[in-house]
Design a protein that fits this description.
The structure holds 2 protein chains of 2 kinds. Chain A has 2 helices and 3 strands, in the order E-H-E-H-E. Chain A is of the alpha+beta class. Chain A starts with a strand and ends in a 7-residue tail after the last strand. Chain B is an alpha/beta fold. In chain B, helix 1 links the parallel strand 1 and strand 2. Chain B starts with a strand and ends in a 5-residue tail after the last helix. Classes of the chains: A alpha+beta, B alpha/beta. Chains A and B meet through helix 1 of A and loops of B.
Chain lengths: 86, 253
C-alpha cells in the first residue's frame, strides 16, 4: 500500500515559514491569500494485510516519529495497490 | 566528578564541551559514543550542540533513537543529571525527557550572537551557583530555538519553577527585542519536573574563558559540580550518578 502523510504546524503555533510565504505570494500580486502553513509531505510503501491495519500502523508512525504532537498536526491517506497508479 | 559528553554523527560542540569541562573546569570528562549503551559510570551526561543526523525530519528526532539514548533515558529516569545544550535541548524534547519543542526562529534566520538570560530559579542543580535573578551573558547559535509548549503545560511549568532561564536585556528586564528567537514567554532553558534534566539554547561551554568573551557559562557547570558534591556529602558512599552502578560504587567526587 501507498501511505501519504501530511504534517503541518499545529493551529495556534507560530509558523514563520508560512507567514513569509504568505507575504511573498501577496507581493507577487496573488490576492485573497491567507493562513499559509508550510508543512511536510511524506510517502511510504507499506506491506500490510488490510487497509485498516495499514491505517493503524500509519497512525502509530505519526504519533511516534513522523509528527511531533506538541507542535504539529498530521493526516494521512492509505491507497491499496489496485486503487491508484503505481 | 565524572562527566560524559555524547558524540552523535553531526555533533559539533562535543570537543568544546570536553575542553570546557576537562581543561577549564578541571573535571574528569570523557566522550560517549552514540552507538554505545554504556554510560561508563558518569555522574552527568552532556548532550552537546550541533546538527545530529543532519537535523533530518526535525532537529533531534533521529538522535533520540541512538542506542545511547536508551541508557540516557534510563539514567534520567533514575534521577541522573542530564544537560542538553542547543541541539541537545532539542533531543531531550524529542525524547520526552523535557516538555515542549523547539521550532524555527521567528526571524527565519540563523542567529549567532551573545544574549542575556536571567536565572529564574536558582534552587536547582543547574543554577545553584548563580543568584536568583542574576543575568548571565551567553552565546547562542541556532536556527530553531523558538520554544513552544501547550498553554496549560507552560502555566504548570512556570508554577513549578521549571523555567530556569529567560531571555532579557542586560538589566534583566523582559523586552520583546531582547527575545532573540521569539520563544514563548522568552524561555531560554527549562528543567523537567524532578529538576535532574535541563535543556538550554545558550551555550555555557562557549563562555568559560574571559579571553573568549566571557565566563558566565562556568556558573552552569559549577552548579552541577556543587550539587553533586552536596549529594555525595549527604549520602556517603553514593554518587549522584543515578545508575545502579553509580549507586553501589563508593567513589567520591
Amino acid at each position: 500500500m501507498l501511505v501519504k502523510v501530511f504534517v503541518t504546524p499545529r493551529k495556534g503555533i507560530l509558523d514563520p515559514q508560512g507567514r513569509a510565504v504568505e507575504q511573498s505570494l501577496k507581493s507577487l500580486g496573488f490576492g485573497g491569500v491567507g493562513a499559509v502553513r508550510v508543512g511536510r509531505y511524506i510517502t511510504l510503501e507499506l506491506d500490510a494485510p488490510s487497509v485498516e491495519q495499514a491505517r493503524a500502523a500509519a497512525r502509530r508512525m505519526c504519533e511516534q516519529l513522523l509528527a511531533n504532537p506538541n507542535i504539529e498536526d498530521y493526516s494521512f491517506e492509505v491507497e491499496p495497490p489496485e486503487a491508484g497508479p503505481r | 566528578m565524572k562527566w560524559g559528553v555524547v558524540r552523535f554523527p553531526g555533533s559539533l560542540d562535543d570537543a568544546d564541551a570536553l575542553w570546557a569541562l576537562g581543561q577549564v573546569m578541571g573535571q574528569e570528562a570523557r566522550a560517549l559514543w552514540h552507538k554505545d549503551e554504556d554510560l561508563a559510570g558518569v555522574q552527568c551526561v552532556v548532550l552537546p550542540g550541533g546538527f545530529s543526523y543532519g537535523d533530518y525530519l526535525r532537529c533531534g528526532a533521529i538522535a533520540r533513537f541512538s542506542p545511547i539514548m536508551k541508557s540516557v533515558v534510563r539514567f534520567a529516569n533514575d534521577g541522573g543529571l542530564v544537560i542538553g545544550i542547543c541541539n541537545g535541548f532539542q533531543i531531550l524534547c524529542e525524547a520526552h525527557l523535557l516538555p515542549g519543542a523547539l521550532t524555527r526562529n521567528r526571524s527565519l534566520s540563523f542567529i549567532c550572537e551573545r544574549v542575556n538570560v536571567r536565572v529564574e530559579n536558582a534552587a536547582t542543580p543547574f543554577t545553584c551557583a548563580a543568584r536568583q535573578g542574576e543575568v548571565l551573558r551567553l552565546p547562542i547559535k541556532h536556527g530553531e530555538g523558538l520554544y513552544v509548549a501547550p498553554a496549560g503545560e507552560l502555566r504548570a511549568m512556570e508554577e513549578r519553577g521549571q523555567v530556569l532561564l529567560r531571555y532579557t536585556d542586560a538589566a534583566g528586564r523582559e523586552r520583546d527585542d531582547a527575545n532573540p528567537n521569539g520563544s514563548t514567554r522568552a524561555i531560554a532553558g527549562v528543567a523537567n519536573e524532578t529538576f535532574n534534566v535541563f535543556g538550554l539554547m545558550p551555550h555555557p561551554e562557549h563562555a568559560v574563558e574571559a579571553a573568549l568573551g566571557g565566563e558566565d557559562g562556568r556558573k552552569i557547570f559549577r552548579s552541577i559540580i556543587m550539587s553533586v558534591e552536596r549529594t555525595s556529602a549527604a549520602k556517603p558512599g553514593a554518587t549522584s550518578g543515578g545508575t545502579s552502578a553509580g549507586r553501589s560504587s563508593s567513589s567520591s567526587v
